[in-house]
Amino acid sequence: MKYYQILVFFIMLCSVISCKTEKERTLLFVGSFTDKKPGKGIHVYEFDNHTGKSTLKFTVDSIINTSFLRLAQNGKYLYSVVESQMNYNGKIAAFAVDSINYKLKLLNMQDTGGRNPAHLEISKTGEYLVNSNYSDPSLSVFKINQNGSLKSYNQVIRFKDSSIIESRQESAHIHSSNFSPDGKFLFAQDLGSDKIRGFNFISNHKDSVLQNENEIKVKPGSGPRHFAFHPNGKFGYGVAELSGKITAYEYNNGNLTFIEDYLSYQQIQDIYRAADIHISPDGKFLYASNRGPEEDSISIFLINQDLGTLSLVGHEPTYGEHPRNFAISPDGNFLLVANQFTDNIIVFKRNLQTGTLKKLQEDIDVSSPASIQMRTYRIKN
Description:
Methylamine Dehydrogenase, Chain H
């Protein structure tokens, strides 16, 4: 009996020692445009969760227009569009993340099946990656290998359509896609056709994992761009680039039901360029970015947890031009905005009770930032 007690004691002691030597490390991944030529496309920073300061640790060089990044749910792999906005097919690059040494290792690249990949989404199971091609309007689907690399695409769905703004909606333009909270459906934002294109996701099908397209029409001239589901799984919110509006939906078993529209901009403008949208980890607040031409700002809304409706809290300037993308830190305490045209990322401290933002002095200087991903890792010493 004494031997057993001693053994239990040592096991508990080792567990305590192990916990004491384990620490958290938050990494910040930034994807950039490289002016259509090989350059420094992806930067890896260590982010200080106490001060909001970032320290550059690693750079992926000699790569073209890595303008959108997506981390795997387990944080072990990073995926990036490559050669976006070129006059030939883009690529998707898969990287292994070395969170201990702050490095990325290229696993492989695959052709996207179209020009100008703009967005990446990963299925809830982590088995599939979906790419949105903007210029050759299509969705391409990739099976993810066990080591994080990508097989060549097994499905490409192409679209033909248009809408009322001739200069921007002369054809379909797939800007992003999102899996539903239950993982059973995919919703693609078609900026050019003023539609949200819904699909059943059949993960066990060999070739056509996206099936049974269902078109959800939005108001003409809206230009749906990005979308975010609420953590409670009951609501979804789309940001429309061309109308500058946020649309709230009720979500239920593959269906999106319109609730209300809200102007994201503080000022009425002739031209709108709303961009990105995210919800705080606690589900209380929604944020969207507005990219000029007369207002570069983050709009802040309070979310009604029961009805899904929004109440405007206010607007915060982004202290730079063209806030294409932004991210909320994993702990919810910070919001980082990538100002593409002024080559800077601005760090804000979030008030968790009011949702308001306070600019910190810890700006990050980086060329043409276009996409941000963040992840907190547990590192054993």
